[in-house]
Amino acid sequence: MIVQPAKGASLRQLLLAIGDQLVEVLTAPRGLDDIAHDVVILDPDDAPDVRPGDVVLLIGLRGRAAVPVVRAAARRGALAIAVKSRDDVLTQAATDEGVALLAVRPDARWEQLESLARSGILSGADAEGEAVGDLFSLAQTIAALTGGLISIEDTSNRVLAYSRSSDEVDELRRLSILGRQGPEPYMQMLRDWGVYQRLRESEEVVPVEERPELGIRRRIAVGVHAGNQPLGAIWVQEGATALLPGAAKALVGAARVTALHLVRSRNNPAAEMRLRESLLEGLLDGNTTAAAVAANIGADPLAPAGVVVFTLADAAADRSVLELRRAEMTNLIAVHTAAYRRAALVTTLGARVYALLPELRTSEGVLALTKDIVAAARKHVGITVRAAVGVAADLSRTATARREADRVLDAGLDIPVASIADVRAQVVLSELLTLLGEHPEIRDPRLDLLADYDARHASNLVPSVLAYLEALGDVRAAARGLNVHPNTLRYRIRRATEIAGIDLDDPKQRLVTQLQLTLTKAG
Questions:
Q1: Which listed residue, 160, 366, 417, 474, has the most CB atoms within 10 A of its CB?
Q2: DSSP type of residue 444
Q3: Minimum mean pLDDT among 43-47, 290-294, 304-308: which range?
């Protein structure tokens, strides 16, 4: 039986998505980088109708009895074959044929493995082969923000994705991941307590106390909805340590982001995602009207809006590491902003991630949210993020607010979070220095002589003149800053004016000199 074609993900991505709690690699003679395109279930009586790139789930055959089917599937181009057995002869046959062989846990359900494999493949690439966010990555982000072990389920309580962790899992989580129902006494308790009903009817975070006698640890859960329609739930199991203080708030935002993933999986995932991203991109560029965006996200176009731009502060030498960090950052931002505003939009442009927060109540609120995101990135994900905040009087002025936020980051200031109102002088100075750097024809060539003199004589004329000008001509204050005698500084200033032929009593020359020497020192 052949199931629907999928988009494609590497075997490595697929195995990470499924997790080693369900499968183990017995052999992979071609490595793990080839692309899986489809999932195929083969019964013992099926003809091996397999195509290149298929992941084959071989049910009903074990050990040496499976060798002929494994060889036939491999010769038809199968990428990997999953079996519920360990046999040296079978492993050698798979190695000889150049096909990966996966051992499935005996108590795992085939339909659960198929569902997880399909989800992993579908989330591996969009219609154009570009990576898109997936539920497994999102589950890992939610785990970092809550301090717990995450399971994302559909309305039938089937696990769609879960976080990976070395922490101890309880019996309910283990059985859920394996595709089997949890202990019936506990499940009946959840029904009696109205937990499932509360998850279906609201966004309320529902606490569920532990039941040591059943091997069940404490949990919190939240329903995932699209409007009034329930789509599933997110469960957070407490591990060896208590959940983080902000776990409940993070879970509300996570549910809203998860809803988008689940809706997209039912429709056209690439189109749905690109629609929201293109709306925000157009608004940020000034090419899409505020009315069009507001109508799509259900926001008031006349209300103030916040624009926050994020960037990674630490560059990674390896491109794959950089992309991983950026994906983690984007997931983190999406969860936090969705908790803050249901209508929030997030998109990536170049190396930066932009978030739109419509219907802003106060600028202090968006600053506080941004600081929380930056702190969470460092604490829970281990990445350093810088951010800048712009505020638009209404949605039509989003592009202006975006430009102001970009200017703050462009200045390269060592400040985690800022708005242009906080650092306008530093931003303007940075922009002036950039202009001077890009246009040598507008610089005073005489001042280059000071840098040349310092280089040839190991002197300190440039820093001395700069300190003097920054101290507004106060020789004693400048000398203290340089840790030299005032007479030494006076000598250096006289020497600098002689070499460059400049008049530091002229206000215009002082201004030009300070700007250009600041650029020289920075370079």
A1: 366
A2: -
A3: 43-47
Q: Which residues are paired to 207 by β-bridges? A: 220
pLDDT tens-digit profile of 295-351? 778 788 899 999 999 999 876 556 667 777 888 888 889 889 988 888 889 988 888
Structure-token pair, residue 124: 């591996």
Helices 269-285 and 247-266 pack at an angle, to 10 degrees, of: 120
- SS3 label, residue 114: helix
Residue with tokens 């101890």: 168
CA atoms within 13 A on the CB side of 247: 24
Q: From CA 139, how far away is CA 121, in angstroms rounded?
A: 16
Q: Would you place residue 239 in the very low, low, confident or very high pLDDT band (cuts 50, 70, 90)?
A: confident
Distance CA 176, CA 101 (A): 24
Q: Which residues contact 89 (CB under 8 A, 6 or more apart)?
A: 63, 64, 67
User: Left (φ > 0), alpha (ψ -120 to 50) or beta: where does 168 sit?
Assistant: beta
**460 and 454 Cβ atoms separated by less than 8 Å:** yes
Sign, CA torsion 26/20/3/111: positive
Nearest to 29 by CA among 104, 96, 102, 85: 96
Q: How many helices (H) and strands (E) does the chain have?
A: 20, 17
Strand, helix or coil for residue 325: helix
Q: Which domains does the chain have, with CATH numbers?
A: 9-122 (3.40.1390.20), 135-266 (3.30.450.40), 269-422 (3.30.70.270), 443-522 (1.10.10.2840)
Is it the case that residue 280 has pLDDT exceeding 90? no
Q: How large is the average pLDDT for residues 367-393?
A: 90
DSSP state of 300: -
Q: Encode pLDDT of 8-19 as tens digits.
A: 778 877 887 676
> Tell me, what's the pLDDT at 179?
60
**CA 158 – CA 139 distance, rounded (Å):** 15
Strands laid side by side in the 159-162 sheet:
159-162, 149-154, 229-237, 219-226, 206-208
Reply yes or no on whether the pLDDT at 368 is more than 50: yes
Q: Whole-angstrom Cα distance, residue 210 to residue 498?
A: 81
CA 260 remoteness from chain centre: 16
The 3-state DSSP class for residue 327 equals helix
Q: What distance in Å separates the CA atoms of residue 338 and residue 259, rounded to the nearest whole number?
A: 11
Q: What integer pLDDT is reported at residue 448 of this predicted model?
A: 85
